[in-house]
Design a protein that fits this description.
- The protein has 207 residues and is α/β, with parallel strands linked by helices.
- It has one domain: Glycogen Phosphorylase B (Rossmann fold), CATH 3.40.50.
- Helix content is 43%, strand content 11%.
- The protein contains nine helices and six strands.
- The radius of gyration is 17 Å and the shape is globular.
- It comes from Actinomadura harenae.
Length: 207
């Protein structure tokens, strides 16, 4: 497991600690109507083709673990939903209200984002703040955002993703380590810090 990097990404963001935290008080009532499985992998975001949701469906099928999708296809990417229709273990919730996002993250065993490219990847940090282990690809900004606190996937294939998810799902010590690293990593993403870093850029440009 990689050690976390001390610095935040060059494009700083903050996490709303009032929403994204580890306390699950009230989550059962909020999520009750969804009747979620006790253990599941969560994908949260638009179901864009570059995010490899069908690959994630295949990997979770191999592991026989439910996959919960919270998000809608981007324009022209309805084919993503067609590609996962054959997987009965996949539960597509569609777009979910903002109040459900953090409870979903806390309920998930793992949040996975096997994307070909991300400019940032805010769900990664938000899941970490909720104490949820994270698996991401090594593409785009994701490794930098993860900062050593996620299971980073260099082999972006169904087999590679299956192995990465299995490490987290089947190894309690691995999952616990990622939770601890993720909480520490998420704590470095504050809006105050983001504002200071942006101000430094504006001052540098003005000089």
């Amino acid at each position: 497991m990689q050690r976390p990097r001390p610095a935040a990404p060059r494009d700083p963001h903050g996490v709303d600690g009032g929403r994204f935290h580890t306390s699950s008080i009230g989550d059962g009532e909020v999520l009750g109507a969804l009747r979620l499985p006790e253990r599941f992998v969560l994908f949260l975001g638009a179901l864009a083709h570059r995010r490899n949701v069908p690959m994630l469906a295949e990997a979770t099928a191999r592991l026989r673990v439910p996959l919960v999708l919270a998000g809608l296809p981007c324009p022209g990417d309805e084919r993503v939903l067609r590609a996962i229709e054959r997987y009965p273990h996949v539960r597509a919730l569609g777009a979910v209200p903002g109040g459900l996002v953090a409870p979903l993250m806390r309920a998930a065993s793992v949040l996975a984002l096997p994307s070909e490219h991300e400019g940032f990847g805010m769900p990664v940090v938000e899941a970490m703040a909720c104490g949820t282990p994270v698996v991401v690809s090594d593409r785009g900004a994701l490794p930098e955002v993860a900062g050593g606190a996620a299971r980073v996937l260099p082999d972006l294939s169904a087999g590679g993703l299956t192995r990465a998810l299995a490490e987290v799902l089947d190894d309690a010590s691995c999952a616990a380590g990622l939770r601890a690293l993720g909480l520490a990593r998420a704590a470095s993403f504050t809006w105050e810090g983001a504002a200071r870093r942006h101000l430094d850029v504006f001052r540098a440009v003005a000089d």
